[in-house]
Amino acid sequence: MALLEKLTDPSALESVNASIGLLDDNDSVAVAQAASEGIARLEAVRFRALAQLNRHREGSGGVTQEVAFALSLVDNHAGAMVAAADALTSRLPHTLNLMDQGKVSGFGAMKVAAATAWLSDENAQAADALLEDRLAGRNSDQIRKAANHAAITVDREGADKRAEHYREGRRLTVRQGETGVASIEVEDGPAEKVNAAYLRIDREAKKLKTGDETRTLDQLRADVALDLLLGGQGGTSERAEVFLYMDLFTYLGLNDDPAEMAGHGHLPAALARHIATGPNTVLRRIITDPLSGQVLDLGRDRYRPTAGVGEFVRVRDRECRRPGCGRPAQTCDLDHSVPWQFGGATNAGDLIDLCRRDHRLKDEPGWIYRLASDGTLTVTTPTGQSYDSTPPPLHPPRAQPAPAEEPPPF
């Protein structure tokens, strides 16, 4: 439509803004999308300008301060932008090209630059090439996970050393806030322990959320965490479990394919093996389709039994199934993709994991959720736009072996 074309002409912005009040829902979304694409293109221009400034100054530390002043940024963010600009214009040409096409935002591009910063130039370019078809239409958290996976894939040995280095840097920090409040944070803690700790806190908080409880879930989580730190029980003491997905050959040390932790992202193979063989680990048998990598079944040998269907769905989905949401499946609700009252069945073919927010969104007027036989969830918004979410395979699909030749007849 003509209004979208005006977005590329700065002199027409005044008339565009005056016309916003006349848009229907579909056009409002379309204009917002077009504006975001235009912003991404302008951000690519800004990155090139910052990279040029940095080259002129030969990487001088004063560049960060000048950018901070000129763009009204804090020093840390200005430094990250300068580093990203240098990487995008030298090591990450495919990501910069996606910005030129309006398919990746500046914030998303900075996630790629940060995830690949530790790589050599050659490996960074290889990771950038892997990401060319994996970034468009993804939010910043999805981009971060994809970029980390690509970085681990191209330099597995370096990823192991980097993970070990970061885990050695764990620390506890306290930040004093406004009158009467403060924050405590475990920085760079082991991912498996941090995720397990959060899951336990979340579970205990939800148990306390009874009909007469006035505190919100966020308040309850904070209260439970502080109670546990101060020696209390925080609720019923119970073992917490995180989902670690790894190929059998990786577990056995026969290859070094990255593993994945639900809600966190990809892990180097050596670290995944360390977690999987730790003293508090529950070993599970997860069977995958050798051609697609999707979950087919999971073993029953574990420390306590649970409902089979619900457990299968959570292992299969890993995270909330709404496209772009990364909440771990253990904190989500099991919901029918087809509402129960309209014929939905309580089985793995109809159940999906949705976090509480997205569970409620599904019931809003105009939102349509359809689950295909291959596990692909299609979410259609009230404006008619559709987005897909498919449970990621546990390993890349593998080629089917050629059938053995039959011996010649006698």
Main traits of this protein?
alpha+beta, 3-stranded antiparallel sheet, 11% strand
β-strand percent reads 5-15%
Largest sheet: 3 strands, antiparallel
Largest sheet strand order: 3-4-5
| Arithmetic mean pLDDT | 79
Helix content: 40-55%
What is the CA–CA distance across the termini?
73 Å
Number of helical segments with 4 or more residues: 16
Order of helices and strands: HHHHHHHHHHEEHHEHEEHEEHEEHEEE
Radius of gyration, in Å, reads 24 Å
Number of strands: 12
Class inferred from helices and paired strands: alpha+beta
Enumerate the spans where pLDDT stays under 50 for 5 or more consecutive residues. 299-306, 338-347
- Principal-axis shape equals globular
Question: What this model shows, in words?
Answer:
By secondary structure, this protein is of the alpha+beta class. Helices cover 46% and strands 11% of the residues. The chain is built from 16 helices and twelve strands. The protein has helices spanning 2-6, 13-19, 25-56, 62-71, 75-90, 93-100, 106-115, 121-131, 140-154, 156-168, 191-208, 217-229, 248-251, 269-276, 308-317, 356-362; strands spanning 171-176, 182-187, 244-245, 259-261, 265-267, 286-288, 295-298, 333-336, 351-354, 368-371, 377-380, 386-389. The strands form five sheets. It has a three-stranded antiparallel sheet. Strand 11 (377-380) and strand 12 (386-389) form a beta hairpin. Helix 7 runs parallel beside helix 9 (140-154) and helix 9 (140-154) crosses helix 10 (156-168). The longest helix has 32 residues, at 25-56. The radius of gyration is 24 Å and the shape is globular. Residues 299-306 and 338-347 have low confidence and may be disordered.
